[in-house]
Amino acid sequence: MLKFSNLFKNLKAITYTASEMSTNAAMIIKKPKYDGRTKKRKWEDRRSDKGAGLYSEKKICEEPFVRIKRRKYVMLLGYSGVNYFGMQRNPSMPTIEEDLFNALLKADLITQEAFDQIQTVQFQRAARTDKGVSAARQVVSIKLPEEVSVAKINEFLPDQIRVFGVKRVTKGFNSKSQCDARTYTYMMPTVAFAKCDTEADQETFRLWEGALSEINDVLSNFKGTKNFHNFTCKKQYQDPSVKRYIVSFECESPIIRKGVEFVVLKVKGQSFMLHQIRKMVSIVIAIVKGCIPLTTLSKALSEEKVNIPRAPGLGLVLDFVHYDNYNYRYGTDGIHEVLEWKEVESDVDDFKEKYIYPTIVDTETSEKPMLLWLSERLTRHRFDQLDDDGKGSGDEENSDDDEDTKDEKNDPKSVTETDRGIV
Asked: Which residues does substrate bind (predicted)?
């Protein structure tokens, strides 16, 4: 028993010795703690100015910080997009948003930080209009101070951009995702419908009897949920995002402007893809002119590949943005207003007559872009001629984007009208 006791004491002594050795070793190899301040002072001392020129003096803000309470608003605006590179902000290019943000900054409705990073005030547009495309009733959502003066905003905007009204909305409102439908118009001279085998003068041409009925019959083929893979670029038939619901598509009665007969095509749909409306207008013109049969439209809406050119972007206008579901849910709660804008309808009509329609009419009568497109593009176009990759003609793919809204990110709500609740 004594031997085991001595053995245990010897083992315990060895253990303590090993522990002490490891502690001593750690103390020997431990490096001194890094002191960055000492190294920094030595580095500054080596400079001829002893580091005086390294750091600028700190600016002391003498003005007290004031927190501005902001609310979510929607803003209704119209613009003529002829001299702009679209709605969406684009560095070094004139855009509608750039002028709008400048006006909001000068009117003290957003800060410089919000101007530089507009996402900080939750800005969102209902639809993206591209180069040359105008809007009569564009809607944007943004957080602004509680007191907003429309007149003050317009003071800092050019004449071709106007804010018609501002309304309070719910805190989580998004002008794009909560939009139920969009209505676009396309204004064009009626000479575009002249038959292919006849020569027509733009100033003297008038639609024949029964022409409106013929045009509307062709337009009716777009109504409902259709597959529009041929009416945009780089989309396949199997892609669910190419299915779009068209509520209505019709041609209004002709009007005379500066001695030229014009018509307005009006289309209402849940959402539209890039180039979709202009390609729809293009194929309708080709069918009514007699350049292609109606069966080509049936093929274009099927799985087959059809090469459709784009009509000029000049006459395209975003006319109305619809919020039916929002109006039904919040428009009568006693706090929020319906987003129908009937109270400023006369202002919108005056703006269209002064800045949007005259620009379209003047350009068509002087430069004749529609006639040039008909002679140089449409009459020579082959709807069945595809590139090797089956995407269509290359010049259509590489030209500027002059159209309306971008793809809605494969929104499943865009597939069927039953999900939409629109009759």
From this structure: 184
Q: Are residues 149 and 194 in the same domain?
A: no
| pLDDT tens digits, 3-40 | 555 555 555 555 555 555 555 555 555 666 655 556 55
pLDDT band at 217 (very low <50, low <70, confident <90, very high): very high
**Residue 380 pLDDT grade (very low, low, confident, very high; cuts 50, 70, 90):** confident
**Residue 203 lies in domain:** 181-322+348-380
Whether 159 and 185 share a structural domain = no
Give the C-alpha distances (Å, rounded to integers) separating 97 from 104, 157, 158. 10, 11, 12
* 17 part of a folded domain: no
Kindly state whether residues 145 and 212 are assigned to the same domain: no
Band (pLDDT 50/70/90 cuts) for residue 199 is: confident
User: Do 359 and 221 belong to one domain?
Assistant: yes
Burial 187-209, CB ≥16 within 10 A → b, else e:
bbbbbbbbeeeeebebeebebee
| 130 is known as an active-site residue | yes
Q: Is residue 184 part of an annotated ligand binding site?
A: yes
- Judge if 303 and 155 occupy the same domain: no
pTM as predicted: 0.76
Number of domains in the chain: 2
Question: What b-and-e string marks burial along 372-399, b requiring 16 or more CB atoms within 10 Å of the CB?
Answer: ebbeebbeebebeeeeeeebbbeebeee
Q: What is the reported pLDDT for 73?
A: 95
367 and 221 share one domain: yes
Q: What is the pLDDT of residue 385?
A: 76
Single-letter amino acid code for the residue at 180:
D
Determine the 3-state secondary structure of 58 from DSSP. Answer: coil
The CATH number of residue 232's host domain is 3.30.70.660
Q: Is pLDDT of 68 > 90? A: no
Q: Are 133 and 214 within one domain? A: no
Tell me which of 49, 99, 108, 130 is the catalytic residue.
Answer: 130
